[in-house]
Amino acid sequence: MGQIRPAGERVSYRRAISILLVIVCSAALAAAKDLALVSNKTNTVNAISVADLVKVSKAQTNRWPDGKPVTLVMRAPSTPEMRVFVEKVYGMTESEVNELISTANHGRANHPAIVVVGSDDELVNRVASIPGAVGVVDVYSINSSVAVVKIAGKLPLEPGYLLHGN
Hints:
This protein has 166 residues and is of the alpha/beta class. The chain contains five helices and six strands.
């Protein structure tokens, strides 16, 4: 026969499960960050269509209308922060994006098409220092050294913005 457990033991078991569920849900929400497309301040690009963003991200656009070479700066496709970007812009698996980056940069040691960095701070600094650069960064990492680029007429945190995390 089954044992009868004290009421306090059942309550603490339920409490432990509740806490575990909150932690798991919080981790999933934390990974879905709001991203923004930022640009080097000398760039004349202050808005971009979704189709043009896809072309830039896949290294299919070499130069901006003003003649500056295009460089995309991003975090590694494997990072949780980039999940939204990889899904919505690339529409590829993480390994396919990594292969695309390698192919896009082949033979372009002096001016790579796509630069992968380790942190949002490094990303903002690289975009600020490379004329023609744009980057995908957490909205809360943006500072005055870069300009925010509209995507499909919308700014980050506006309803319908492409890189909204949730």
